[in-house]
Amino acid sequence: MRRGAGGFYEQVVKRGLDLVLSIGGLVVLSPVLGAIAFSVWLCLGAPVVFTQRRPGLAGKPFKIFKFRTMTLGYGPDGELLADAERLTAFGRFLRQTSLDELPELLNVVMGEMSLVGPRPLLMRYYPYFTSAERARFLVRPGITGLSQIDGRNDLSWDQRIRRDIEYVSWCSPWLDLCILCLTFWRVITRSGLRADPGTTMLDFDEERRRAGQSITEGAP
Questions:
Q1: What integer pLDDT is reported at residue 218 of this predicted model?
Q2: Structure pTM?
Q3: Residues of 8-19 as b/e, b for ≥16 C-beta within 10 angstroms?
Q4: Those residues with Cβ within 8 angstroms of residue 215's Cβ, 6 or more apart along the chain or in another chain
């Protein structure tokens, strides 16, 4: 296993490309971002942008930005309803077209994410990664990654994590270019994507608990 965060490409070239492409993307897509923001406000109200803490490079938490896709519906017990009950038709469209991910370009500019890398998962999942699986945190999380072009939501959790670790081992300019091009194709064809994966597979932490895996120490 190579040190994904220590190579010249990852530290210098990749970061420079991330900045150029993400800033350029924000400028070019600003009308689209504005139109989506206005549509979210009309359909779902404020806030327009959803934020959530996710583990980033070396597991360090950061706040991810996404367009909201769900209502703020609460049940009789005062708890938020299940995701499937709060996901609207408009929100499903945003997810299926990956338009909800566009605000993550800000995370790339801020140095918290990269255009390509392992997808940032939920903070509550972090303690359930084995020591070997935490190699996925040697690089910045990405808007897209190897598992997104190789099955997306059709992959099991073990398969996704295996692809993430493979990316850390193989990271190169050519691999990143291939992933970006294939991601565009996947988004256009909407292949391997489910708007609400939780309806067809268990959450990562629940799957690991059912498998009897104990929580590791040292979660951030």
A1: 46
A2: 0.86
A3: eebeeebeebbe
A4: 127, 128
Counting every residue written for the chain, the total comes to: 220
Radius of gyration for the chain, computed over Cα atoms and rounded to the nearest angstrom: 17
**pLDDT at position 217:** 46
Backbone angles phi, psi at 20, to 5 degrees: -60, -50
Q: Which sequence spans correspond to the domains of the chain?
A: 8-210
% of the chain beyond a pLDDT of 70: 87
Distance CA 59, CA 198 (A): 23
The amino acid occupying position 94 is: L
Model confidence band, residue 41 (pLDDT cutoffs 50, 70, 90): very high
158 to 38, 127, 161, 203: CA distances (angstroms): 38, 15, 5, 12
